[in-house]
Amino acid sequence: MGKELNPQTKLGILGGGQLGRMFIQEAIGLNVCVHVLDPADNAPCAAIANVFVQGDFADYETVLNFGKEVDVITIEIEHVNIEALEELERIGKLVYPRPSALRTIKDKGLQKLFYAAHQIPTAPFVLVENKMEAALHVSEGPFMQKLRTGGYDGKGVTPFRNEADLEHAFDAPSVLEEMVRFEKELAVIVARNASGELRVFPLVEMEFNSEANLVEFIFSPANVSVEVAHEAAEIAKKIVEQLDHVGLLAVELFLTETGQLLVNEVAPRPHNSGHHTIEACYTSQYAQHMRAILNLPLGDTALRSAGVMINLLGEKGFTGTAKYEGLEEVLSTQGAYVHLYGKEETKPFRKMGHITICLPELEQAKQLARKFLSTVKVKA
């Protein structure tokens, strides 16, 4: 496929959550026909996809049959059937991310081995098969234990500091990653198309909900030196090229107390750390991902203004039909934008939407964001 837009192209997405929903909103502008596969009949994409198929994206036959009906296949979640994607690639379908890259990224253990093999800075680690093996390394800690597969949004991660933590340790293949004394958690998103063109979005700084271990608050530009921002971009470009990855790659990093950047993990798709780009950048992460996988020219990633994003998480103690409190003030505030994800039911800490604040002065945007973080609630 050359660098021109073909309006007959059918684009398939495995996963119909909020990332796919925001992707479709960009695709509509370029008349791209989007097919979505998701197991939930009321998934956020269900009402707006050109074609919605209810089915299991982890099932070989389901993915294979879905993929045969489209020209290009992408994902919004890593936990999909890679064998089916390999077969689709073999019969001539364009699959991005490539199954070979997805195999590495989907498994946090293979991710770590990839970093070690390519001299990409990351925290020291040990791979273990079960809790018994983890116990053999308890004296070498403290660690964070991460399940090799299946973890997301803070799930599949637990502290492993001493023998007392063995009770809550995962009894499954996992990574024991040395706990890093870090000053900041950062993220950078890089895009690469099939022609090899690269564009990097400005670095973001992230703050987490300590109870749910979910990103709660991000802002860009990050409060770091020019040198750190440049190094983060170079690390991201090296990873995307060494993986031969096409599409978006979100790279999460630790900035240690000694000023070193260490890769935490990566995601081969649009990412929570890039939601602000819809309003804050000339090209959003969703438009960029679409351009990359269709091998179109990549867009300008520069910031139009400082951007701050807060996640709207379901309030603790509430499960049921979602009700939003405090949005009226947000909607009456200049530079504030609301995105709700079309999820009917709220649960504790479930991602229900986000708010972006774009203003010339970052500190003013951050003050507003912190205010909305305390006043906007998702209840039932």
Characterization of the model:
With 380 residues, the protein is α+β, with helices and mostly antiparallel strands. Among the domains are: 10-95, Rossmann fold (3-Layer(aba) Sandwich); 124-178, ATP-grasp fold, A domain (Dna Ligase, domain 1). The chain has eleven helices and 22 strands. It has helices at residues 18-29, 60-68, 82-90, 99-106, 108-117, 131-135, 226-242, 277-280, 285-293, 327-331, 362-375, and strands at 10-14, 33-38, 51-54, 72-75, 94-95, 125-128, 143-147, 157-160, 174-178, 182-192, 198-200, 204-209, 214-220, 247-256, 261-267, 306-313, 320-321, 323-325, 336-340, 345-346, 351-359, 377-379. Strands 10, 11, 12, 13, 14, 15, 16, 19 and 21 form a nine-stranded antiparallel sheet that branches. The longest helix is centred in the middle third of the chain and has 17 residues, at 226-242.
Q: Main β-sheet, in a few words?
A: 9 strands, antiparallel
Could you give the distance between the termini? 47 Å
How many strand units? 22
Q: At the third CATH level, what is the topology name of the domain at 10-95?
A: Rossmann fold
Strand content: 25-35%
Mean pLDDT: 94
What is the gyration radius calculated from CA atoms?
20 Å
Annotation field: number of helices: 11
Q: Would you state the CATH class of the domain at 10-95?
A: Alpha Beta
Helix content: 25-40%
